[in-house]
Amino acid sequence: MTHTDHWLLPEGIEDILPEETATLERLRSDVLQLFHCWGYRRVIPPMVEFLDSLLTGSAHDLELETFKIIDQLSGRLMGIRADITPQIARIDACMDTHKSQLSRFCYLGTTLRTRGSHLERSRSPLQVGAELYGFAGYQADVEVIRLMMETLALSGLHHLQFELGHVGIYQSLVRQAGLNTQQEVTLFELLQRKAHAELVDFVDQSGINAAMQSMLLALPELCGDASVLATARHVLKAADEDVHEALETLDMIQKALIIHFPLLDVHFDLTELRGYHYKTGV
Fold this sequence. Notes:
Blueprint: H1 18-37, E1 41-42, E2 48-50, H2 51-54, H3 60-64, E3 67-70, E4 77-80, H4 85-94, E5 103-110, E6 126-133, H5 138-154, E7 161-164, H6 167-177, H7 181-193, H8 196-205, H9 210-218, E8 223-224, H10 227-235, H11 241-260, E9 265-269
Parallel strand pairs: 1-5, 7-9
Antiparallel strand pairs: 2-4, 3-4, 5-6, 8-9
Helix pairs in contact: 1-5, 5-11, 6-11, 7-8
């Protein structure tokens, strides 16, 4: 092994060199100032937490992406965060003293993942975001999306295609179908892969009624422009009322966004389920 080999970094782990660091620092400052102007207070969660706390309510994929270590003081298993979003939910829950008020938090920090994604080669990406708690109306979603659009504009990104989904639709259909935990895991995985043939086999063997089977099989096809919402109202007409409320929420959000961003290309995907273990809405 040569001397240079000792300096090799793990795959997906990189240095940020001076010019890129300067650009990143300017953008970081601008983004945090934008969040501050919108009333979002910055929090800095720790890089590591006890694993049971870090992964509470999180998806199985996030557990696979989390590096695990043993705490030498307590002997308990700890995780290095792969996603900051669940940590912000924990912070909000721990500050549960004025829940009649809105809570606006923002964050910016490094994460570490056991593997890269098909969109991102880095296993140590910098994550920035904002979360609003304490108000369930669609206006909260519109606010956060508007803030996100302004953040992307600061980064020089324009003419975007924006995709909306609502995890409450999937959650309600799973409850209505009476699926057990293992069936829900299987259904989730099939929908993410849009594996139609396997999905047909799954619903055939699931023991659910024909109307429910039809609605589950329709989900992967419910993606596209605003006309998808009308189609969804028809094919999901036998669904519980909260499904139709979720569709109405998506419609109101889309109309509000078009007012603020007339040229925004809004698409819908009712099988967009990232974060569904700790989110309930859009």
